[in-house]
Amino acid sequence: MDRLDELTIFVAILDSASLSGAARRLRRSAPAVTRALAALEERLGTRLIERTTRRLAPTEAGLRLADMARRVLADYEQAVREDPDAPLRGKLRITAPQVFGRRHVTALVMRFLDAHPAMQVELLFNDRNLDLIEEGLDLAVRIGALADAGLVARRVGEVRRMVVASPAYLARRGTPNTPQELERHDVVFTAIRSPLEEWRFRHAGRDMAVKLAPRLTLNDTEATLVAVRDGFGLGRALSYQVADDLAAGTLVRLLADYEPESLPVHLVVSSARYMAPKLRALLEFLAARLAALPPLQPLPPARVPITAAPKPAGRRQAGAPSAPPSRKTRRP
């Protein structure tokens, strides 16, 4: 086996913390990765990685070799790129939240590929935070606090959780002025990350949770917004998801004074050391353009005019006929 290939496999095993993870990252079979490690240890006459059924850990000799191997691989990468202006080539794998990826990442990646014809990019949209190393990913877009302190992150903006409704719904049912008034309204609930039927708010430095009794529950944000635009009830979404609707007047922002803290938006990579030029180029390209997007800019508090709620008509007795209120349909 080629010596550089040997070192590449060794470093991938350490970065992935598993033989199977290294195999996926390098797109090789797990037995091939295992044989390569065994051959390297036999040739050097020392154990490089302690292996148990639950984890891998580098030995002292393995740590020394890893440091040297990373330098050798970085020097080799630089050496083969003799011309700093040589075209970028190769493949990168990126993950992003589904709606954000569809609305913003896809178009930017296509522009990057237009500028670099020898490059390939695989996009994986998932609302779950995929493990970069375990899944063999090069870069991720993350919305919210970062759980993994080992990731290298570049902040590109922020978003907010907003309660919204259509003008037709508010004209028919009135505007809630506090979270406690939500119990008198129809709610369209999106159940993706948490099964708890509640919305959390923050006001005057205090957090609060309001339990809901949704009329309609969905597991897709876009479907939720279709129902909310149609006047079916109140919904909640991230600010970038409703920015166009708010600008067009299709939806109205509610309870702005009770919105939770903003959520940061980051680009993350597993390591900044020895970053491949193609990855660095894509990171810089995306960071500059995402940071300039209006939906990711800080939003000022927006006070919504208070609309008096219509007088309640009283509760309908069970079994009594009732005609559904008419709704003005608004198409997205």
TrEMBL record:
InterPro entries: LysR-type_TF_proteobact-type, LysR_HTH_N, LysR_subst-bd, WH-like_DNA-bd_sf, WH_DNA-bd_sf. GO terms for molecular function: DNA-binding transcription factor activity; sequence-specific DNA binding. Pfam families: HTH_1 (PF00126), LysR_substrate (PF03466). Residues 299-332 are annotated as: Disordered. It comes from the Bacteria. One of its GO terms (biological process) is DNA-templated transcription. Keywords: DNA-binding, Transcription, Transcription regulation. Residues 1-59 form the HTH lysR-type domain. Belongs to the LysR transcriptional regulatory family. This is LysR family transcriptional regulator.
